[in-house]
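Predict the holo structure. Ligand: pyridoxal-5'-phosphate.
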Amino acid sequence: MSHDSAQSTDESAKLYSQFLAKNYSTQAITLVKGKGTRVWDAHGKSYLDFASGIAVNSVGHAHPVMVKRISEQAEKLIHVSNLYRNEPQAKLVESLSKYCGPGRFLFCNSGAEANEALLKLARLHGKKKSGVEGKCIGVVVAEKAFHGRTFGGMSATPQEKIQAGFRPLLSGFSAAPLNDIAAWDKAISATDTAAVLLETIQGEGGVFPADPVFLQQLQKICRERNVLLLIDEIQCGIGRTGKFFAYEASGIKPDAIAMAKGLGGGFPIGAIWMAPPHDELFQPGSHGTTFGGGALAAAAALAVIEIIESENLVSRVAAQSPAWHESLKKLAQKYPAIIKEIRGTGYMVGVAMNIDPLPVVAALREAGLLAVPASGIAIRLLPPLNATVAELNEAVEIFDRVLSAWKVA
Ligand SMILES: *Cc1c(COP(=O)(O)O)cnc(C)c1O
């Protein structure tokens, strides 16, 4: 441990507490570097990073191709706005369209902004459908959903802890229980509902997957009633489940998709894809953002896709996750008083807990494993897509070691 870095971590802690808004319960470590699946704090302690910046660092830390592409682009051109074309954005839509099919993309800078764009798309669709602005504005969302912290995002997030203090929110939203098709059938009105919006696998809510049959039935209802099927793939998309998009496993075809987190591998970028004919709803002047699809962000996303493809990461996640899930399930059997069940797909795993996850997350961190709590009920393990089998096993070993010493009250 160098004297300098110890000093810098103390300095960071002091500056954080003095100057930063109090909206985060930031954990008491300062991370200073990363390589692959590992990160180091200012004291030189290393951690296996299964937080991945909340499902963001899809190709790990400091991937040489990513570093190279970002620095090459930074030397050429960082930003020009959407007043002009830039080459990386053009290449990125070409690359992404292989996964989405025919349609159009709109770029932004975060997940919440991507969902805002989906909600604006829903308003335009509702206006077209009813012929009147403000008449058909209904959006049905899932209970326990999470769609972001902007006003649109909060309105689409039917959770008291997210909405409290910020009402009144946008009107027109209603919530139905995930996977309960009868409830959605009742909630979706042919005249008043413009869209449904849901995550293929709920992340922040506690890792609850949408059932493939439910998704197919929901798609059928949406088509019959001319309601947009909007899928939020912000956390579960871009290879994390062993498919490029998690919804692919169900065979549905969304009308629009929101993506962000894993897309930039750590560089902020968000996007929506829209299927025809809905991709004609946005016309010049109807939406926009200064930074969206900027050259550097687009180059970062292109690098992520290049790495995912050249290292076959989507099929690698699919191939490596069953054995990993098996060993996690063995852990659940070993500690039934602590672990309730293992949920999720691929490298998006929720360890559902019978006890408060927060002290366990802290103990895991002490033992050298970073993980993410979800809604006070689960611990998320979100390794980078290029995490090795040895690293997956190491995470299970650390978990085992921490739980073996756990005193259940
Ligand atoms: C994280 C997340 C968002 C919000 O993304 P931000 O980039 O934090 O605004 C929206 N939807 C889902 C499913 C998410 O996981």
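The chain has a mean pLDDT of 96. The domain at 3-63+312-404 is CATH 3.90.1150.10 (Aspartate Aminotransferase, domain 1).
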